[in-house]
Amino acid sequence: MGLIFRCPECEEYVKVSPTLAGLHAHCPSCNVSVPVPDHDMPPDADTASHLYAKKKWEALTAQAQTTAAPATEVFIPPKVAWILGSILVAVLGGILVLAFALQ
Ligand SMILES: [Zn+2]
Asked: N or C: the chain end with fewer CB closer than 10 Å?
């Protein structure tokens, strides 16, 4: 997960490696060496109302979350889910039919 802060020179949101916290980094937007804070800098009340800044922040944090969290969920394709579902229904239906037939 990267460290996100706002460049004091061009006011662009910049994502850097957390190892640069407290050091200086080159802003990819204006290429000026700027101090990196030791924590994320979310948009404040003023900048949050600025739609572009907010969207940019959300995009950066979303990206950080997707790269940080490994996919632990097992993905079942819809086709397979349908087949498994119909097998389950068929088996349950068969059991019901047998139960009535054996009465
Ligand atoms: Zn900059």
From this structure: C
